[in-house]
Write a structure and sequence with these properties.
Blueprint lengths: L2 H25 L9 E6 L1 H8 L10 H4 L11 E7 L6 E3 L6 E3 L5 E6 L2 E5 L4 E3 L5 E3 L4 E2 L4 H4 L12 E3 L4 E4 L2 E5 L2 E3 L7 E3 L3 E3 L3 H4 L1 E2 L6 E3 L1 E3 L5 H39 L3
Antiparallel strand pairs: 1-2, 3-18, 4-17, 5-6, 5-9, 5-13, 6-15, 7-8, 10-11, 11-12, 13-16, 14-15
Helix pairs in contact: 1-6
């Protein structure tokens, strides 16, 4: 068995998975509120060495070694995929329904067909009912939606909208509602649904409703936190790794096999 071939194949698959993550980050470079993803590459043997003292084995070293293939288990693979919630650049738009959150741990709550979700995409519009919603049609929720079951923030037609830093909404200087500004204790519990929606286990019970504070900038958008230069550098590195592993695989399948066949065929009994 050509272990080197399988190692190169596994490593190439890992690079293809990294390429998918980088490509998605670059595709959402201009998506407001998008948070970039990243990966951690490891191998089973390294993980085993870290946790072997906690494994239920009488002799951690000798017995544990039986479960290791010293060649194949050094194949790199993605052991963790995570989201970077650092703040993106704040961009001025002048649109009264563009609302930028000023911190990576603040979120809007929106009502979707599959339930309440979090988002940091502050690009809102008025839907056909005059309610504030995302461009995908998910309505923005007010701070009292849990107690009143009011799922919409409706704005009177042709009124001037003002939103203060606390999330209070005014139409022609008349207070209409207050936006639910949410936070979570552990950002690692969040997982993406699409590009800008976030969910977590027991979402509505787990989020923290923020008190008054400096949360929102009206007329601005928090853009994606993707750094195009870093992503392009990573893209070039991944492509070079793929080319390198492809050459290794070709060498194993063609050159080494051809050499083995030629030498074995020349041996006389």
């Amino acid at each position: 068995m050509q272990n080197g071939y399988y190692q190169a194949t596994g490593a190439m698959v890992t690079q293809f998975n990294k390429l998918d993550v980088i490509s998605n980050n670059l595709a959402n470079l201009n998506t407001p509120g998008f948070k970039k993803d990243d990966t951690v590459v490891g191998d089973f043997e390294r993980i085993f060495q870290t946790f072997r003292d906690e494994m239920p084995l009488k002799n951690h070293t000798k017995e544990g070694a039986k479960f290791l293939n010293r060649s194949l288990n050094r194949v790199p693979h993605i052991v963790e995929r995570f989201t970077d919630f650092s703040e993106g650049v704040i961009k001025h738009t002048g649109n009264s329904l563009d609302l930028a959150l000023k911190n990576g741990n603040y979120f809007y709550m929106v009502d979707t067909p599959t339930g309440v979700r979090l988002t940091q995409n502050g690009s809102f519009i008025l839907n056909e009912n005059g309610a504030i919603s995302t461009k995908e049609g998910y309505t923005l929720l007010a701070d009292d939606f849990l107690t009143t079951n009011n799922r919409e923030i409706r704005i009177p037609q042709n009124s001037t909208i003002t939103v203060d830093k606390n999330g209070n909404i005014y139409a022609d200087n008349e207070h209409i509602a207050k936006i639910f500004i949410a936070s979570v204790n552990n950002l690692k519990e969040l997982f993406k649904e699409g590009d800008t929606l976030l969910n977590m286990k027991n979402l509505e019970e787990s989020v923290i409703q923020m008190e008054d504070g400096d949360y929102i900038a009206q007329g601005y958008l928090q853009m994606s936190n993707v750094n195009p230069i870093k992503e392009m550098i990573s893209l070039i590195e991944v492509n070079r790794f793929i080319e390198m592993y492809q050459k290794v695989m070709t060498s194993h399948m063609n050159d080494l096999n051809q050499e083995a066949i030629t030498k074995l065929a020349s041996i006389r009994a």
